[in-house]
Galactosylgalactosylxylosylprotein 3-beta-glucuronosyltransferase (Scylla paramamosain), 636 residues
Amino acid sequence: MRPSQPLGLLTVMKKVQVLAVLLGVVVLVVYFMLLFSGPVTTTTSTAFPVVVTSWLGEYGVEGMQSDLPILYVITPTYRRPEQIPELTRLGQTLMHVPKLHWLVADDATSVNQQVVDYLKSIGIPFTYFLTPMPQKYSRRWFGYLPKGVANRNGAMMWLRLHATEGVMYMADDDNTYDLRIFQEIRHTKKVSMFPVGLVTHTGLSTPVLRDGRWVGWFDGWISDRVFPVDMAGFAVSIPFFLSVPEAEMPYIAGYEETGFLNNLHVTIDDIEFLADNCTKIYVWHTHTQKSKASSREILDKKYDGTNLRQLQEVMVVN
Amino acid sequence: MRPSQPLGLLTVMKKVQVLAVLLGVVVLVVYFMLLFSGPVTTTTSTAFPVVVTSWLGEYGVEGMQSDLPILYVITPTYRRPEQIPELTRLGQTLMHVPKLHWLVADDATSVNQQVVDYLKSIGIPFTYFLTPMPQKYSRRWFGYLPKGVANRNGAMMWLRLHATEGVMYMADDDNTYDLRIFQEIRHTKKVSMFPVGLVTHTGLSTPVLRDGRWVGWFDGWISDRVFPVDMAGFAVSIPFFLSVPEAEMPYIAGYEETGFLNNLHVTIDDIEFLADNCTKIYVWHTHTQKSKASSREILDKKYDGTNLRQLQEVMVVN
């Protein structure tokens, strides 16, 4: 054995190490360059909504006459094969609820006429917004993306301009709502909270009460959240919301709820616990399976001149 | 090299082959023994339902007075974390439909009181059945299992005994129904058909019409089915159904619909095409994601004496 041999091996190994570190640095630099590059001059950099249409429903102003406080239900949505069915299903639930104004905030840059037509067809007073996600939040190369934040902030900006009383509630279009929850939240003084079923691996998210008093939280992901609650698990009164100017929802994945409630300076004493002291489940965080991309089979020329051409117009064909 | 060596290898290979074949035979024999063995004396070997409760709703007989033909909506269901939310969502849609009798057929051997209580709470006339799947169909070690057949056949047996007029429609609890479909099927003469969205990879199942006349089928899986339609894509008038005694749904996965329509001796001439000559989608075959098994965290003793004990009662905790 020559004495130089092991030394040569060490030299090669050191070179490899140096190269590996250099390669790592290059990869990181390119990664962050790409992450923070891209179109910064964009018309969608603000969450302020383009208010497209506001409609008082088939009964007009008269239909909104009632002694009940008005309910503002905020629903973020976006174009996908399930969009119309989801809105249909939720709409048919909301049709049972009196004195309700539905704020449908679309993550889109142009009006989805199918959505507007559907909303008009069911006769609920509604406002339809375009609230596209600002591009700077629309890509994240690791972790999760914040969801529905531009939609909800957009609708809340509208509320700050147009609402004076009543209660607001965030109702995603794939959740399931027992009608009783709308009766319960109607008279929220500041903030109300209640259990949500089918959330995370625990299958439930709820405040924990002992003898009717708050003692903690039950949720599959508590982490460092001050309010580890689901978006569907609380409602806020409009006067309380208006009393804290400019409080909005942060663009931080997983911290949308707690961030918003923190921004509103909510304390435990501000919270009413509903649903029979949080012993009933009236809201479920159901998820609809994403449809496999609809095939292009429907586009086949052999179907020209048939009903498939009209059906295709209302589908998302990929 | 010794000449016996290759010969020895061949002998070993032959022995291995014989052993492999023998092993295969043993595996197959054991497989079929297990497949066709098991409890054959079971109380659940018939699809005839145990009728548990029938209720005319909060308005009683009076509520069913109307010139409209009655709609019988058959919904198969089974115990799972999503069962109550799904029935809640569908129930809130059906609450909008006049003169409807909801036939809820549970794949269970004992009453799910939560389901019965929910049905009573929404005020729709309903009949709740126990229609457990016969055990001989409940395991299949390859291929697919027939789904909801005992439920639907059970409800249809009840219809043969109790119904004289009106229309029946199979409405799974996770589908989405635009209210317009219930208006459309109400006056079905024999069999009506219409498009169903979000089915298979084509995203649509529908009769194909040219100039208003039937020319074929569009569905992601045509195969050798005479009627390649989805369960939610047709309705049958009660008089037509009663005119073919004993026609029921076969226990053949994938052939439930076409088998049933064949058993009814349906021909193309018997079919009315609804939804504006099959140019509109009023029904979607939405699927709700199965919840991950709820964790047992809620059972932790530290929650004794809190609201979690009541919440746990209405959950499916695995």
